[in-house]
From TrEMBL:
Protein name in UniProt: Protein kinase domain-containing protein
InterPro entries assigned: Kinase-like_dom_sf, Prot_kinase_dom, Ser-Thr/Tyr_kinase_cat_dom, WAK-like
Keyword Glycoprotein listed: no
Keyword annotations: ATP-binding, Nucleotide-binding
Domain Protein kinase: 1-324
Signal peptide: none
BP-aspect Gene Ontology terms: cell surface receptor signaling pathway
Organism expressing this protein natively: Salix udensis
Pfam families in alphabetical order: PK_Tyr_Ser-Thr
Amino acid sequence: MGRRLLEELIASCDGKCNPIRSFSAKDLQKATNSYDSGQLICEDLDYKLYKGFLEDRPISVKKYMFLRGTSEYMGSPFTDVVVGSQMSSHKSVLKLIGCCLESEHPILVHEFAGCETLSRFMSHHPDQIQSPPTPSWKSRIKIAVDVANALAYLHTALSKRVIHRDITPAAILMDVNYVAKLIDFSLATAIPDGETDVRERVVGTFRFVAPDCMMTGSYTEKSDVYSFGVVLLKLVAGQSECNTSCSVTGGGLDLVSHFKNSIARDGIEEILDPAIVAEGRWPGKERQLNDFIDLALRCAHESAEERPAMMEVGKELRKIYKYVISPC
């Protein structure tokens, strides 16, 4: 398993990847206190991410596991290593430090950059002592800027155009200062040279998969733009949105339709996270919110052709962030 990791990395990167270290299974088990549940940062269908300490510094340890009842992974640990290594130089990506070559299942070692995902931050309840504080409106815009920059880099800066395919709040790790980093590339896929799209089995998270992907299995950069648009909507609405009023069978399109209908009927106040409302008013806030929501809905347009490119999305978000006049 470990040898295959290195072979995949060498074959895919032409020697251009950032060098990564090899760690022993014993050292990683000790670093995580035998993968103690108290060290768990987050988990997905086929991996768990733990906090650990190695050589007197904190690290993040991603331990892959087979899907329950199967002998396969949902995503590819090898893709995670290959793409993650190429993306590690970007400040908004969890840096890959190394991997374990001895274990039955792949184990990856990353920098430590916080103990909460964006999804947990957004599910904050004031009466729950263990919940992290809800990010301010200003922090939410900065989170969006950081993730947009990372996705634009993924789409344009590597040797091939790469599609992430699972942009969700659960794929974004946060520290106490709300600095955002993408943490997983296991479902990523590259568009072949000379092609405009790539056809793959439909994967991803319910409500975040673009409707065109659901129907055709065809992925382009605009597939990630759609998913990112849904993340933007969740940033502005928090956990209150769509809990009871959206169909549970219609996927992301129902979520987006819910926002459009609510705004048309009652204005943006209907869908705003109460925490944003509670911050009060200041010059430029309404403009920010309207521009942010308009951009989110364009990203989550049903038609891929109508969605902006991620470079444009990042540029517009930076403009919105710059006219924060009053601190949030």
